[in-house]
Specification:
The complex is a heterodimer of chains A (171) and B (416). With 171 residues, chain A is mostly helical. Chain A is 72% helix and 0% strand. Chain A has two domains: 1-82, Orthogonal Bundle (Rna Polymerase Sigma Factor, Chain: A), CATH 1.10.1740; 86-171, Arc Repressor Mutant, subunit A, CATH 1.10.10.10. Chain A is built from eight helices and no strands. In chain A, helix 7 (132-139) crosses helix 8 (143-170). The longest helix of chain A is centred in the last third of the chain and has 28 residues, at 143-170. The relative contact order of chain A is 0.11. Chain B has 416 residues and is an alpha+beta fold. In chain B, 29% of the residues lie in helices and 24% in strands. Chain B starts with a helix and ends in a 9-residue tail after the last helix. The chains are: A mainly alpha (171), B alpha+beta (416). At the A-B interface, helix 1, helix 2, helix 5, helix 6 and helix 8 of A face helix 1 and helix 2 of B. Chain A: This is SigE family RNA polymerase sigma factor. Chain A: It comes from Streptomyces cyaneochromogenes. Chain A: Pfam families: Sigma70_r2, Sigma70_r4_2. Chain A: InterPro entries: RNA_pol_sigma-70-like, RNA_pol_sigma-70_dom, RNA_pol_sigma-E_actinobac, RNA_pol_sigma70_r2, RNA_pol_sigma70_r4_t2, RNA_pol_sigma_r2, RNA_pol_sigma_r3/r4-like, WH-like_DNA-bd_sf. Chain A: Keywords: DNA-binding, Sigma factor, Transcription, Transcription regulation.
Chain lengths: 171, 416
């Protein structure tokens, strides 16, 4: 890589790593190790393609898309051993139910109960503030499919978080 | 409509809640950036490393980040380091710590057992933090063991966090003890899980030591042959807490930390750019195509790395080509018995194998060449249109002889 480009890449990576990591933490529902792994994978892929990435309109958005796809690819690879759970993970039980936990943890647990693609839709739509069409592009899905997933995921989160979300968000 | 209004309200609150949750995750950004850079470089090197085959191939991946720039920085000839043991009096940081040295040290410190899949990264390249990984088997099943070395600012938040037991709610674990050693070092012995949510029950046990001068030694072990993605091979990781403590406190690691260059305050990624510019994929392919035999039509050109898919009318065949500098230090691994040395000193070898993607029926032929100045041209052809693709023909579209002619073509000299 040319020096100028290497510098550009380094600047980009340093500027985006924190945000990508936070996105990855939400995508992985708080698995920080996996999140680190995904961010490094994303930055690695961007490095290899930097010549072209640096010329796209929105390299930051491109990086986010790469991260989301890396996450989904990872989930697909492990899909035979892991399934989205229907219940809030056991962890919550030992703390007297979700109501006793900070919203942050309750939210992460609720996210972990969503199928991976639904989680990706939620993160892109409500954390990245992407439109349905942009989300669809990132996920290689149709807008209609994103809408369906989004409605389903919101319903599920509502069910899992219910009043909690209202109380904490209002405070 | 009240329901719709409510929906919007919920969406708004969800956005707030996500931001609240997301913003609390804080990472060591420099480490992420450095890790990303290393992976990017490794992605470029991965296939060549795999060509070497077996454990040697993995070791090569491990030190991969350093291969392009083995002398780490200035484009001056690399000091010979055929045996590090012969250089006991070197000044720390003057000569880099090598991956091989790290592997040898870890093997020596481990109790009796079988060690395999060694990978390591010394301080030769742009990566500042040395790292060594092995799979250790005491006879009761393999477990991955990693040691990483780092320097932290004494008394800093980073130093404290390295040895502070994590919150049990955020990182569920079975046991964690943080204590102060007689010499003032802080030690954390942690027994937890690779995935905090335990969706896979891989256990991760770690020992972290931070000395008063800021040397940070971190040892991790798993009850599986890999950190992630490998089945559980035993009920617990191979080393007991006492053995883990003995390993992490071994004095040699602290000595090795001194090889890590002092922080310059600049982000890692800009600290060590490639001094030798590698040939662009486009230029490599532009040179490759005229060297292909007549009748071989190029049906696809690589964008992410230098490959072409050709079709001679009998089916598609993937051709991979790499043109690299500074590969002299791995000559022994690449050119073993049976390799040939030409009159000008160029080493040539060929390999025939089944690729490295476990594709049934895959046939890959490779010719590897290394000029005396470390300039390497390696070209492979597959009997399939991609490394993961099912075979499309019995043999690759290029013969070993044709591959050899391509790899030895004087046309490549313009990249030297």
């Amino acid at each position: 890589m040319r020096q100028g480009r290497a510098d550009e890449y380094a600047e980009f990576a340093a500027a985006r790593a924190g945000h990508l990591y936070r996105s990855a933490c939400l995508l992985t529902a708080g698995d920080t190790h996996l999140a680190e792994d995904l961010v490094q994978e994303t930055l690695g892929r961007i490095y290899v393609r930097w010549g072209r990435v640096s010329r796209v309109d929105n390299p930051a958005g491109y990086a986010q898309t790469v991260l989301t796809r890396a996450f989904l690819a990872h989930q697909r690879r492990r899909s035979s051993t892991e399934r989205a759970t229907d219940a809030i993970p056991d962890r919550a039980a030992s703390h007297g139910g979700p109501g006793d936990l900070p919203l942050r943890l309750t939210l992460l647990q609720a996210l972990s109960g969503l199928p991976a693609k639904d989680r990706a839709v939620i993160v892109l739509r409500y954390w990245e503030d992407r439109s349905v069409e942009e989300t669809a592009d990132a996920l290689n899905a149709s807008s209609a499919a994103v809408r369906t997933r989004c409605t389903r995921a919101l319903g599920r989160l509502r069910e899992l978080l219910g009043e909690d979300l209202g109380e904490y968000a209002a405070s | 409509m009240p329901v719709e209004h409510d929906e919007e309200h919920f969406e708004g609150r969800l956005g707030h809640a996500l931001h609240d949750a997301g913003d609390r995750f804080d990472a060591d950004r420099a480490a992420l950036v450095a890790g990303g850079l290393a992976r990017g470089r490794r992605q470029r090197l991965r296939r060549r490393a795999a060509v070497v085959g077996g454990a040697a191939g993995i070791a090569l991946v491990g030190v991969g980040g350093a291969l392009l720039v083995p002398w780490g920085g200035a484009p001056t000839p690399r000091p010979a380091d055929s045996s590090v043991a012969e250089q006991p009096s070197r000044t720390p940081s003057a000569v880099p710590l090598t991956g091989r040295e790290l592997i040898a040290t870890l093997e020596e410190l481990l109790p009796e057992g079988k060690v395999s899949e060694q990978q390591a990264r010394g301080t030769e390249g742009s990566m500042p933090s040395p790292y060594v990984h092995v799979v250790y088997d005491d006879g009761k099943g393999p477990g991955a063991v990693d040691v990483s070395l780092n320097r932290v600012e004494p008394g800093s938040e980073q130093a404290r966090q390295a040895v502070d037991c994590p919150d049990k709610t955020l990182t569920p674990h079975d046991s964690c003890v943080s204590s102060r050693m007689p010499d003032g070092s802080l030690l954390m012995l942690f027994q937890g899980y690779e995935y905090p949510d335990r969706r896979v029950d891989t256990k991760r046990w770690t020992a972290d030591l931070v000395t008063p001068s800021g040397q940070h030694v971190s040892v991790s072990e798993w009850n599986a042959a890999a950190e992630k993605g490998a089945p559980i091979s035993r009920s617990e990781p191979p080393l007991s807490t006492a053995q883990l403590k003995e390993l992490v406190t071994a004095q040699v690691w602290r000595k090795y930390v001194e090889f890590i260059p002092q922080e310059t305050g600049k982000p890692t990624a800009t600290a060590a750019p490639d001094p030798v510019e590698e040939a662009s994929y486009g230029k490599v392919l532009d040179t490759l195509v005229p060297l292909l035999p007549k009748g071989a039509e190029v049906v696809e050109r690589g964008e992410d790395y230098s490959y072409a898919v050709i079709d001679d009318g009998k089916g598609r065949s993937l051709v991979e080509i790499d043109v690299q500098h500074g590969m002299g230090d791995v000559a022994d691994e690449l050119f073993g018995d049976g390799s040939e040395t030409l009159a000008d000193g160029t080493k040539v070898t060929d390999r025939q194998d089944a690729g490295d993607k476990d594709v049934p029926g895959c046939v890959r032929w490779t010719v590897d060449t290394l000029r005396t100045d470390g300039f390497r041209v390696v070209v492979s052809a597959y009997n399939a249109p991609g490394p993961h693709a099912a075979p499309s023909r019995a043999k690759p579209a290029l013969t070993v002889r044709q591959l050899r002619e391509i790899a030895l073509s004087p046309q490549w000299n313009k990249f030297r």
